Amino acid sequence: MSSSDLLPDSFDKPFKTYDEMLEIMSNRHIDIANPEFAKTALSNLSYYGLVNGYKESFLAVHGSDDFLKGTKFEDLYILNMADVNLNNIIFKYILYIERALKSKLSYVVSEKFGVYTDITDSRCHNPNDYLYIKNYTNSNNNRYNTLYGIKQTISNNRQNNIIEHYMNEKNHLPAWIITYKLSFGQTIQWYSILRNEEKIAVCDAFINNNSVSIEQRKEFLKKALTIAKEYRNKIAHGNRTINISGLPQLPKNALISLAHNALTSEEYNQGIGQSDLFAIFLSIIILFDDPYLVSNFYQDIEELFERFGEPIQNKTIFEIFNIPSDSMDRLYHLITSKFHVDPRRQK
Asked: Of 195, 204, 266, 333, which is least packed with CB atoms within 10 Å of its CB?
C-alpha cells in the first residue's frame, strides 16, 4: 500500500496540534502547570525532543509510555537545558583537542619531513613532499587512501583564503596550514599512518607519563581521540548526552593508570569510564596539557552541575547522566595530581 492510499488518520504518527500534544502528555501522567509555556517550549524544541528524548529517566515502567506520577513538564524542560548546556561545554573542549592534534601532528611532520607538498601529485610519489607515501606506514592498509584524501581536500579548498594566499604568495603549503581544512577524522587517520618514531613524538606531546608504556599510551591516545570525535559528531547531529551509545571503549589498564585513581578497576568492569560520559570527562583531562584550559573545563562543568543541582523526581543530575555521584571530586583529584594546580573557582 502506498502513502497515497492511506487516510490522514491511518498514519502511525499523524499531525497533532499543540493542544493535542498537551492532552497526550496529560494522559501519560505529565503535569502541565502552565499550558502556554509548554506550547512555546514545544514550538522551539519539539515534542520528540522534549518528551521522547528524556522519557527513559521518568518512565514508571521501562518500555511503557506512562511517566512517573508527579512528573512535571518543567522537569523535562530543565533536563533538556542541562543536557544542551553540557553538550555545548563538551563540544567546545573537544574542539580544543582537535586543534591540539592538528598542531602537534603538523609540528612533528614538518620537523621530520619538511614543509613542502605538491598537491598535483595525487599518487604521493614525490620524495620531497611531506606527504610522500614512503614517509608513512601501511600497517593498517589505509596509507594511500589517507594521503590521497588529504591531497583531495587541499585541492578542493584551493579557493579558501588561507590556502589561496599560500598558493599564490608563498612557495610552499606547510602542514600547519592544510590542517585547517582537514576534518577531525582525517587528522586522526593521518596520525594513524605515522611511522612509530613520529607516532611516539605526537603521543609524548599529549601524554608524557612514563608510568605507562609507550605502547599503552599510543593505544590510549588513538582510542581517546576516536571517542572524542565520535561523541562530537553525535552531539552535533542532535544526540542527547543521556542516551549516547556506540562509542569506542577506552583501554582499561592505561586508563586506570592515567586517571590517577579517579577510577578503579572494579568500576571499569561495571562499565563506568569505558565509553560513557565519564569516559569523555577523563579523556579530555588526560589529553590536555594546559593547566589553565583544564581548570576552565572543570569550572564549566562544576558551574553547570551546581546550576542544575536540584533533584528531579528524586534523581540527582549525576544519576540522570549516569556518572558517579562524586564525579567532581574525582576529576578534581585527577587534575591536582596531574597538574599540581587547584582548578576550583575561588568563592
From this structure: 266
Q: Are residues 66 and 104 in the same domain?
A: no
pLDDT(140) > 60: yes
Q: pLDDT tens for residues 72-129?
A: 999 999 999 999 999 999 999 999 999 999 999 999 999 999 999 998 899 999 999 9
Residue 339 resides in a domain: yes
CB 218 within 8 A of CB 203: yes
Give residue 131's domain range: 98-206
- Write the CB contacts of 301 (distance below 8 Å, at least 6 apart in sequence): 86, 89, 281, 328, 331
The three-state secondary structure class of 312 is strand
Kindly report the backbone phi and psi dihedral angles of residue 115, in degrees, each rounded to the nearest multiple of 5, phi listed first. -120, 15
Q: CA–CA separation, 106 vs 179, rounded Å?
A: 8
* Grid coordinates given for 347: 568563592
* Tally of domains within the chain: 3
On whether residue 331 sits in a domain, the answer given is yes
Q: How far apart are CA 274 and CA 252, in angstroms?
A: 8
Question: CB–CB of 256/264 below 8 Å?
Answer: yes
Residues 6+ apart with CB under 8 A from 59: 65, 66, 67, 68
Residue 220 belongs to a domain: no
At 238-256, the pLDDT tens digits run: 777 776 778 889 999 999 9
Give me Rg for the CA atoms of the chain: 24
Residue 31: its H or E element? strand 30-31
